[in-house]
Specification:
The complex is a heterodimer of chains A (248) and B (266). Helices cover 32% and strands 28% of the residues of chain A. With 248 residues, chain A is an alpha/beta fold. In chain A, helix 2 runs parallel beside helix 5 and helix 4 packs antiparallel against helix 5. The chains are: A alpha/beta (248), B mainly alpha (266).
């Protein structure tokens, strides 16, 4: 099966700062991948480069589909932004519709289904900026779900959500994977990464490891990924500090 | 007076609509910067076209103003990308540069004090027929562009990163929004002047934001408030014998104040 995302010697710089260095990666279609690494390790940069927001300094990234959904970390929404939850979720269809085509019944079904799955249908007429952080994150995830994408890049999607929402999103990730979509999730949850995903990608500006959790979620690999800031507590491996790799 | 009222209403529709994106994106300082950044373009046009008659070509002034406005907005974006300073700092630097450059250039023009007054405060009572027609044409063109590119404009205003993943060419879309803003400013300054065009770009959309939840409704309400500010402002100006352009801007801000006070507490 061809790769849905391929990088060849990918290096990305922000001025003098190297965010990603010499990444060679082939992400197989129809898999769920946990992307691990400390803050500043290049997880968000990898996603941003995949959708064309950032240009590589060296190398290339190839995406084998034009149906890509990217949920960035921390979308800041103005409290008075003039859009209801229903409007925001419907925006997820605009990529497929283009700039002037009206929504079809199929589009409306996708939007309604996404709102029901993420339990924001009762918030449809509320302005997005009025919602709590958790409700807002669910609405944004519903927008991503409505996109009906083949490749989903979710950057720390569990931030600010409660446990029931976390469970809903995990089930959604599994359902997407079962439908043949590819889901890459940047996360700091090492325990879940080793348990809930097909593959794990460990980054620390460079590619440390990529493969099944049994091969990548070892103490050696994680110690290299997190520059030693990993500990085993109660049988679980956890990241002990969220630090930039160059912070000392 | 009839031409002035017509021009003021058209400018109201134009600024009230484009201004919704200014308020939504939090770019009021950029709008103010563009309003002042037109000055060097105006100055160059005056210097090049005044000639022996001493009367500058008004069409050239409008073109020069548009070029100055677009340059100001593009310059702010360039500084932001190159330096990673805060957005208000990058905008303020361009603001000061373009304003100072404009004053330096226009000081080379004889009789510049009179020309500058018209530029700064508008000349709505002297609008000729051709300028009303031009205003109508530009307003129609901007509204058509907003209609055609509504979705990309909304997406980049919501979140640039999400917009990119939905296929929007983000930088080109933001440039297009800047051009529309510059057009609105250039058209607006003939009525209320460069100093006060912000009144029509910000106050009616801010009032509409308090009254509506969705962008199409916000644009319609804002355009209506801004359009009504024109003839009402002229009435105030005529009745109290005060400056016309400033009266229009005051009516627009008064509409916001009334809305802010009377709207139910959320």
């Amino acid at each position: 099966m061809s790769a849905i995302l391929t990088t060849r010697d990918l290096t990305v710089r922000y001025g003098d700062v190297v965010a990603l260095e010499a990444i060679d990666l082939e992400v197989p279609r129809g898999s769920s991948i946990a992307v691990l690494g400390p803050n500043g390790s290049g997880k968000s940069t990898l996603f941003a480069t995949a959708v064309g927001l950032t240009e590589p300094a060296v190398g290339a990234v190839t995406v084998g589909t034009d149906r890509v959904a990217y949920l960035p970390q921390q979308i800041a929404v103005e409290p008075m932004f003039p859009a209801t939850v229903s409007d925001v979720v419907a925006m997820g269809r605009w990529g497929a519709l283009g700039w002037r085509r009206r929504m079809s019944d199929h589009d409306r079904v996708l939007v309604a289904g996404a709102m029901t799955t993420l339990a924001v249908d009762h918030l449809a007429r509320r302005r997005l900026g009025e919602l709590s952080g958790g409700q807002r994150q669910r609405a944004l995830l519903a927008q991503v779900a409505a996109q009906d994408a083949e490749l989903l890049l979710l950057d720390e999607p569990f931030t600010g959500v409660d446990r029931p929402t976390e469970d809903t999103v995990r089930k959604l990730i599994d359902a997407w994977r079962d439908e043949g979509r590819t889901v890459m999730v940047a996360t700091h949850d090492l325990a879940r990464a080793s348990r809930d995903y097909d593959l794990v990608l460990a980054l620390n500006r460079r590619l440390i490891a990529f493969g099944p959790a049994a091969e990548t979620c070892t103490e050696e690999v994680l110690a290299a990924t997190f520059a030693g800031h990993v500990a085993r507590i109660g049988g679980l491996l956890i990241e002990t500090e969220h630090r930039h790799p160059g912070a000392g | 007076m009839r031409n002035g009222a017509a021009a003021a209403m058209l400018v109201g529709v134009l600024c009230g609509t484009v201004g919704c994106f200014v308020v939504m994106r939090g770019t009021a300082l950029l709008a103010e910067s563009v309003a002042h950044g037109v000055l060097p373009g105006v100055a160059v046009a005056v210097l090049l076209t005044a000639g022996t008659s001493g009367e500058p070509d008004k069409a050239a002034i409008l073109c020069g103003a548009l070029a100055g406005g677009v340059l100001t907005a593009a310059g702010s974006a360039f500084i932001l990308r190159r330096t990673r300073l805060r957005e208000d700092t990058a905008t303020a630097v361009m603001f000061v540069f373009m304003l100072a450059l404009g004053v330096v250039l226009i000081s080379r023009v004889e009789g510049f004090a009179v020309d500058l007054t018209s530029f700064l405060f508008g000349d709505v009572l002297s609008v000729p027929d051709w300028e009303v027609a031009l205003t109508l044409g530009l307003t129609a063109a901007v509204l058509a562009t907003l209609w055609a590119l509504y979705r990309p404009f909304v997406l980049v205003s919501f979140d640039r990163r999400r917009a990119a993943s939905l296929g929007v060419p983000v930088e080109r879309t933001e440039l297009a929004l800047m051009v529309l803003l510059a057009v609105a400013v250039v058209v607006g300054f003939t009525v209320v002047g460069a100093l006060l065009v912000l009144g029509l770009l910000i106050a009616p959309p801010a009032a509409a934001a308090l009254l509506t939840k969705r962008l199409p409704a916000m644009m319609a309400v804002s355009a209506a408030i801004a359009a009504a500010s024109g003839p009402l402002g002229l009435l105030v100006s005529w009745h109290f014998e005060v400056a016309a352009g400033a009266s229009i801007a005051l009516v627009a801000v008064a509409a916001f104040a009334v809305t802010a006070v009377l709207r139910p507490t959320p």
